[in-house]
Structures are given as structure tokens and as C-alpha cells.
Amino acid sequence: MALRLPRPHRDDVRIAALGLVGGLVLWGVGLYSRTPDDPVSRVDHGWVVLLPLGVTAGCELMRRTRPRTALLIGTAALVADLVTRGNLATVVMFTDLVYAAVLYGSPGAARRIPWITGLITVAAGVVPVVLWRVPQALLIGVGTGLATVVPAATGWVVRNHRDTADAERLRAEQTALLAGIDRTHAVAAERARMARELHDMVANHLSAIAIHSTAALSLDDPKTSKDALAVIRENSVEGLAEMRRLIGILRDDSGEREPSAAPTLDGLGALVRGAGVNGLDVTLTADHGKVPAPVELAAYRIVQESLTNALKHASPGRVTVTLAQRDGSLAVRVSSPYGDRDGPRAPGSGAGLVGMRERVALLHGVFEAGPEDSPAGKVWAVRATLPLTQGEPQ
Q1: Measured between alpha carbons, how far is 43 from 40 in angstroms, rounded to an integer?
Q2: Do residues 359 and 225 lie in contact, with contact meaning Cβ atoms separated by under 8 Å?
Q3: Tens digits of per-residue pLDDT, 155-198?
Q4: pTM, whole model, 2 decimals?
Q5: Overall number of domains in the chain
Q6: Is residue 250 part of a domain?
Q7: What is the rounded CA–CA span in Å between residue 9 and residue 165?
Q8: For a Cys staple, 262 with which of 1, 182, 258, 305, CB 3.0–4.6 Å?
């Protein structure tokens, strides 16, 4: 299978053509780098300088695709140029090959070439002085440095700037990507928060409305229907007030995470009385001091959702609500009779338990819910432990 060389870059083609044309012009007008009596020049035929010139121009075609190969061949061409009258275009193109080898070559080559050219420059300055015993021989080292060290150092500086720019560009792209991910997570977290708020604020009232309307339709008793309609009206008004509060939260652009009207544990008494109006027998025991606002809101919502679930699913009997502060945490427990229910019940989606679990997880607490045995019989218990030292949810 034939080896196919990579196609040269169009800028490299321009550089090679310009160098070749320039060298031909210098040769045509008889302008050489050295005089015929120069001791270095061994070949006096003027046309011989065209051979290193052509080879170096060909190397320019590979300066970007195969920089190391181009530099090695170009070095051999430069050595050949030294034994001729010399062409300035060959030297200039060789300096570009050194520059390109550092800029486009491998990282290892980019590190080694400046050191190698430095050693060659020192040798080119010291050896002639030792051999010829004339100070002017130092100019050979100066010329070698201009042709090797300067382009190598320039390529190293440009490469460092290019690598730095690429790293900064990559860092900016990564930062933009992370910012986009953070925005997506923030939107998802806010949507989940608003879903919990909507569920917790409205589900209690709608469940009571569904149960009492079912009772009013199933029982042919005017007094029962009238009482059910009164409960339905009261829950409708309270549910409408909660919906207005939720709309206020959505329209609030003050940047506060929770509005000032957020419910507190002081409102548990009213919540329990409302549950009693809806037909639940609730006992509240609260023993706690001042707790952080996020913990207070989470505890209130857990009790509210637990009473809603008891209204929809619990058997007849007493519901107990207990709040106790101990060991740097607030313990919340709500238990209700567990078993088959004869009366009407409202359907559930399971979102309530998910919402309670999410609230507790945001506060790094512990949440459990399920049936358990008690002296009063089998009950459904909801238990949450909310740390007071990590009140701000993440």
C-alpha cells in the first residue's frame, strides 16, 4: 500500500514558493552569502546553491504536517549550503523550519530543540576561536544563534501563548457548560419545590371537599348534606386563600427563598382544629423552642400532609401529632389508625410521601413512614428527624 503524505497547508505552499522565488532572484543577480575566497566555501559553481535552496523550499511544504522531518532534512540542506557560495533565502527558510518544529512539533521536541540549538550555538562560537585563534570567529556563533536559537525561542514563546489560549478557551467552555448544568439543576429544584408547595397547600382542602361531597351524595339526609356543604365551603375558601398565596410566591421577585407569610409551627393548632372540622380526632403534643425557618416550614408541611393522608386513608380513631426537640434536632411523629376503611375515601397519587421525603433530605434529616404496632392497635406512623444545625437546605 503506497504511503500517502498529508496535504500541505496552503500557507506553507505560499511560504515555500516565496522562499524559492526569492532565492532564485538572489542567484540570478549574483548575490551570494559568501565570497569565492571564503575558506568555508568548497564549491565555487554558482548553480550548486540551487540544490540546497530547492530542498529547503520542499521542506517548507512539510513545516506544519511533518515538522521534525522537515527540520532534519533542512539541516542537511543548510550544511550543504555552507560548502557553496551560499544563498540567504536558504538560511531564512531554515530559520522558519526551526520555528515551525518548535511550534507545531511534539511537546518533547518543543522542549529539546531550544536546548540543542543553544548547545550548537555555543559550540559554533567556541570551536572556531580555539582552532583559528582569532576573536572574529565568535561571529560564527552569533550567526548560528540568530539562525537557530532566536527562531526556536520565538516558537517556544508563541507555542506557550497558544497553549495558554487553548487552555483558557477550554476552561471557559467548561465553565459555560457547568453554568448551564447549574441552571438546569436550579430550575429543576425550584420546580420540585413549587410542586411540593402546591401539593401540600391544596391537597388537604381538596381531599376534605372530595370526602364530604361523596358523603353528601351517598347519604339521603338533609342535615348531613348541609353540614357537608358547610365543610366544603370552608375548605374551598381556605384552599382559594392558599392558591392566592402560592401565586404570590410565584410572582415574588424579591429573591427571598420563602415569603414572610410562610406557615410556622405556631399555626399547628389551627391546622389541627381544621382537621377536626373535617372529621378527624387529632391530639397535638408540641415540646420545642425556637427552630430555624426551613426546619419550621418542613415540620409544618409534614404534619399537614400526614393529616391529609389520614383524612383520605385512615380508619376511624385518634390521630396523634407529636413534636419534640432533643439532641440538636426536631423529631416529628404523626400516627393514625391503620386498616380497612368503610366510609368514602379520596384517591391518592403517592406524591405526598415523596414530597415529605424530599423535604427531609434537603435538611439532611431522617424520614420513615409505614405501618407499626402500638398499644392502641396497628397504626400508620410518619416519623421525621430534622437537624437544627443545618437549617438551610442545599
Answers
A1: 9
A2: no
A3: 999 999 999 999 999 898 888 888 888 888 877 777 777 777 66
A4: 0.54
A5: 2
A6: yes
A7: 22
A8: 258
